[in-house]
Amino acid sequence: MTAHEEFAGVRYIVDDVQAAVGFYTGQLGFEVRMSAAPAFADVVRGPLRLLLSGPSSSGARATPEEHAVSGRNRIHLVVDDLDAEIDRLKGAGVPFLSERVTGPGGSQILVADPAGNLVEIFQPAARP
């Protein structure tokens, strides 16, 4: 990796780039860095660069058919107040894929983008 890299990048294969951009910018606070919709868009939130690749993109075309579905991997977005974030997302009509789950590291809930890719909304446990 070169020194000028400032983002950690994750590629998500999506069915509809514009719907994915709307979801990530409108619901989860990402900003558009670059868009070549309908093939591709590049959105960022803090140090996370999410590469949204539609069916005609080189990223999607390079993906073997047996791996071309959304999967168990997910991005992990940290929030200060999970309850407030749940209320905000519910108010926006975002469907949840899980109930709130709490463990020793914190609490989380799962949502999916329009293509079915998982997004974990996470609030770390309070530290003494």
TrEMBL record:
VOC domain residues: 6-124
UniProt GO molecular function: dioxygenase activity; lyase activity; metal ion binding; methylmalonyl-CoA epimerase activity
InterPro entries found in the cross-reference section: Glyas_Bleomycin-R_OHBP_Dase, Glyas_Fos-R_dOase_dom, MMCE/EMCE_epimerase, VOC_core
Keywords of this entry: Dioxygenase, Lyase, Metal-binding, Oxidoreductase
GO biological process: L-methylmalonyl-CoA metabolic process
Name this polypeptide is given: Catechol 2,3-dioxygenase-like lactoylglutathione lyase family enzyme
Biological source species: Nonomuraea soli
